[in-house]
């Protein structure tokens, strides 16, 4: 089936590309990673997820000439006043570790030692636009609540999935089957909301027989 729409995804993260491609499959949307097109990562100078996602989407659209989709996501820990938030990708570097998922998890577990309040949420904001100057970008958000576990467990997913424990399932996000995790995840929630916005505003014919 010919894709209904091709968008450039403003990320070099293979995990995000695979997850979002699966989530947007119902509309036949095809995602091209900006790394496939030789597009460098955009600056992310803002302090909110939505502002950074918009900046990334505009950058990718301008460089590619295509509609673009960007995700800005992070972990918000209640005991840390919502941090690391938009700085999640660089969290480990605050504590002398290199950038990377494994180091982020290690740094978080060290900083959470002795904390009784372990409530946290993974947050995702998706922004899609038809051109860099689109005056009405589509914006959707999702939030997955859980507790920070005392150790990393599970092999699925990426980022902080191994340490976000979901009490109602008795497992971390990284222990859940991928299909279930995608149905619950912050990015899954945001993707479903974005799909509905696309159906309403970009593809009014989508889903018609």
UniProtKB/TrEMBL annotation:
**UniProt GO MF annotations:** dITP diphosphatase activity; ITP diphosphatase activity; metal ion binding; nucleotide binding; ribonucleoside triphosphate phosphatase activity; XTP diphosphatase activity
SUPFAM superfamilies, A to Z: ITPase-like
Which residues take part in binding substrate?
11-16, 73, 158-161, 181, 186-187
EC main group: hydrolase
Question: What residues sit in the active site?
Answer: 72 (proton acceptor)
According to its record, what are the GO cellular component terms? cytosol
> Hydrolase as a keyword?
yes
Task: Tell me what reaction this enzyme catalyses.
Answer: dITP + H2O = dIMP + diphosphate + H(+); ITP + H2O = IMP + diphosphate + H(+); XTP + H2O = XMP + diphosphate + H(+)
Biological process (GO), any one: purine nucleoside triphosphate catabolic process
| Requisite cofactors | Mg(2+)
- So where does Mg(2+) get bound? 43, 72
Superkingdom, natural source: Bacteria
- UniProt xrefs under InterPro entries: dITP/XTP_pyrophosphatase, ITPase-like_fam, RdgB/HAM1
Q: Which Pfam families match?
A: Ham1p_like
Q: What is its EC number?
A: 3.6.1.66
What Gene3D superfamilies does the database record attribute to this sequence?
3.90.950.10
How is the cofactor bound here?
A: Binds 1 Mg(2+) ion per subunit.
Asked whether the UniProt record includes Cell division among its keywords, one would answer no
Q: Subunit notes for this chain?
A: Homodimer.
In terms of PANTHER family, this protein maps to: INOSINE TRIPHOSPHATE PYROPHOSPHATASE, INOSINE TRIPHOSPHATE PYROPHOSPHATASE/HAM1 PROTEIN
Family to which the UniProt record says this protein belongs: Belongs to the HAM1 NTPase family.
Q: What does this protein do?
A: Pyrophosphatase that catalyzes the hydrolysis of nucleoside triphosphates to their monophosphate derivatives, with a high preference for the non-canonical purine nucleotides XTP (xanthosine triphosphate), dITP (deoxyinosine triphosphate) and ITP. Seems to function as a house-cleaning enzyme that removes non-canonical purine nucleotides from the nucleotide pool, thus preventing their incorporation into DNA/RNA and avoiding chromosomal lesions.
Instruction: From the Swiss-Prot or TrEMBL record, give the protein name.
Output: dITP/XTP pyrophosphatase
Species whose genome carries this gene? Serpentinimonas raichei
**What does the organism's lineage look like at the top?**
Bacteria, Pseudomonadati, Pseudomonadota, Betaproteobacteria, Burkholderiales
């Amino acid at each position: 089936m010919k894709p209904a729409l091709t968008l450039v995804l403003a990320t070099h993260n293979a995990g995000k590309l695979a997850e979002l491609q699966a989530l947007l499959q119902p509309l036949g949307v095809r995602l091209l990673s900006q790394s496939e097109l030789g597009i460098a990562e955009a600056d992310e100078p803002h302090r909110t997820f939505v502002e950074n996602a918009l900046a990334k989407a505009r950058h990718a659209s301008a460089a590619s000439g295509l509609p673009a989709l960007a995700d800005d996501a992070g972990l918000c820990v209640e005991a840390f006043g919502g941090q690391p938030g938009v700085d999640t990708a660089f969290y480990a570097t605050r504590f002398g570790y290199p950038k990377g998922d494994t180091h982020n998890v290690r740094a978080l577990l060290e900083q959470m030692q002795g904390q009784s309040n372990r409530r946290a949420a993974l947050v995702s904001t998706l922004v899609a636009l038809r051109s860099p100057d689109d005056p009405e970008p589509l914006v959707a958000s999702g939030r997955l609540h859980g507790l920070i576990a005392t150790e990393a467990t599970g092999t699925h997913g990426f980022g902080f999935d191994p340490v976000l424990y979901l009490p109602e399932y008795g497992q971390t996000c990284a222990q859940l089957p991928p299909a279930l995790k995608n149905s619950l995840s912050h990015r899954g929630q945001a993707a479903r909301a974005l799909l509905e916005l696309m159906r309403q505003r970009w593809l009014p014919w989508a889903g018609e027989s």
